[in-house]
Each structure stands twice: as structure tokens, then as C-alpha cells.
Amino acid sequence: MVDAVVILLHPILGFSMAIWLYRQWKIMKALKTKKGIMWSKIQDKKRSEIVNEHEVSGRRSLLFISVVIFFAVVADAYRYFKLDADISSIVSLHGWLGLILAFFVYLMYRSGTKIVKQREEKENIKQVRGIHQRIGDFLVWLLIAVVFLGFLRLLDILQ
Question: Is the CB of residue 27 less than 8 Å from the CB of residue 38?
């Protein structure tokens, strides 16, 4: 029972974070294009309210990804020390891409806080916002790869 909890906690948290990040990206895309299912869900809200919710969620992103990575390390350490997993089975492309994903979440956090600061100081945010959007677009593709590889890795671990 403990084995299953320790091993499955990271995939559950990671998938939850993937949905959360994708939803953040989709909401901002819908706000920009004013199309799609997500737009129909947010069209009655004020733009400033949606942006504020996005900013609040963005501030939590570093904590959330740190927790996900922490439980990945705990699960791998548990597999190595308690379940006698081979060290080569601990290191994976999923893990390396996950760390790269964490780096891009950090870049999103930094550019997002810079946008807020520049907006409060009445500076032009167009350039930083463009960078933030492009990082977000790349992050979603990387997120899809990490989730897919994580699913394959989980199947490998559970067999």
C-alpha cells in the first residue's frame, strides 16, 4: 500500500498540474481570440478579473511545480532504496524534460511578474507580454511531451 501511494503521488500531482497549466494557457488564448469553448465560459467576466485570476494562479506556479518535483524525487529515492530499483531506471527523459519544464515555468513566473510591475509603473508591456505568450506556447508543447513520457514511464514502473 505504501509503495503505491509513494509511487502514484507524483503522477497524480503532475497530471493535476498539467491540467492546471493547460487551463491557464487556454483561458489566456480564449481571452485573446474570443473563440472556443473556453471563451464561452469566460465571456461574461471582465477582462481585468480574468487577468487578475491568471496572475494569482501564476504566483502559485513555482510552489506547485516544486511540490511535484519533490514528490518525483521522493518516489525515485523510495524505488531505489526500498524497492531495489536499478539506478539506470531512475534517470529518464521524462525527468530531464520535467526539469526543463520547471525552468520554463520559472521563466513564465519571472516574465509574468515583470509584466505586472511594468503595468503598475505605466510602462509598455507589449514586448514582455509577447515573450510571456511565446514561452507559454512552448511550455504547453513541452508539457504534452512530459505528460506522455510520464504515462509511459508509469506503465513501465508498475509492470
Answer: yes
Q: Measured at the alpha carbon of residue 88, what is the angle toward residues 84 and 91, in degrees to the nearest 5?
A: 105
For 124-134, what is each residue's pLDDT tens digit? 999 999 999 99
Distance of alpha carbon 100 from alpha carbon 89, whole angstroms: 19
Whether the CB-CB separation of 122 and 88 falls below 8 Å is answered with no
How many other β-carbons are positioned within 10 Å of the β-carbon of residue 48? Answer: 8
User: What is the C-alpha to C-alpha distance for residues 154 and 148, in angstroms, rounded to an integer?
Assistant: 10
Domain extents for the chain?
A: 2-158
| pTM of the predicted structure, to 2 decimals | 0.89
- Cβ count near 153 (within 10 Å): 16
Three-state DSSP at 44 gives coil
CA 68, CA 159: separation in Å to the nearest integer? 23
Q: Which residues contact 105 (CB under 8 A, 6 or more apart)?
A: 21, 61, 62, 65, 139
